[in-house]
Design a protein that fits this description.
- The chain has about 190 residues and is α/β, with parallel strands linked by helices.
- The protein has a single domain, classed as TIM Barrel.
- The strands form two sheets. It has a four-stranded parallel β-sheet with strand order 3-2-1-6. Strands 4-5 form a two-stranded parallel ribbon.
- The two termini are about 10 Å apart.
- The mean pLDDT is about 95.
- Bound molecules: zinc ion.
């Protein structure tokens, strides 16, 4: 199964999450918001140095369903260019922002915009504990472990203390099911 994180927000919390991932010996696919990475360029190397994979989660995290095709492509291209400049690669995956869930097939407008920007894969997710709503650590853990299985893609978020606190139990629980938490590239490669 793959660990994917929406990546932006408070740097102190980001550092805590990075430390928790290191302690748990887990690597993730970090779907970075381009404007955040642009403001904190040292985080590109920081994430890479810890073995994490960077991916495109739009430049400004606007509500994608409300954008025109031209605006969609601009959001993807801007983030792609930040990734390319700071890491030497645009990354393998794009994930839109502001979608209702991670399992609906993306609209053809989204797929076309991603394809034009060079992304063959728009990556969704099937395990969504809604950690960004801060439901509490116990809920984040139990919702995740109730639905995760072989081949699952888990969606979590930087910037939420409850998620950081939940991480050790999530990793333990995933491994107790006989699953190995890996990056999206490793899962799909
Ligand atoms: Zn997001």
């Amino acid at each position: 199964m793959a660990l994917t994180f929406h990546t932006d927000g408070d740097l102190g919390l980001a550092q805590q999450l990075l430390d928790a991932l290191s302690s748990g010996k887990a690597t993730i696919t970090a779907f970075v918001v381009g404007s955040w990475l642009q403001q904190h360029p040292d985080w590109a190397k920081k994430l890479l140095d810890h073995g994490h994979e960077l991916a495109n989660h739009t430049q400004n995290h606007r509500s994608f369903p409300k954008l025109t095709p031209v605006q969609m492509e601009a959001e993807i291209v801007e983030c792609r260019d930040v990734l390319q400049r700071l890491t030497g690669t645009p990354g393998a995956f794009f994930r839109p922002s502001g979608t209702a869930n991670g399992t609906d097939r993306p609209s053809s407008a989204v797929l076309d915009a991603a394809g034009s920007a060079g992304y063959a894969t728009v990556l969704g997710f099937d395990v969504d504990p809604l950690d960004y709503r801060d439901p509490g650590t116990a809920a984040v853990v139990s919702r995740t472990l109730a639905t995760v299985g072989p081949g699952s893609i888990l969606s979590l978020h930087f910037g939420h203390p409850g998620t950081i606190a939940a991480l050790p139990r999530i990793l333990d629980g995933i491994r107790a099911k006989g699953l190995e938490p890996v990056t999206a590239s490793k899962l799909l490669g």
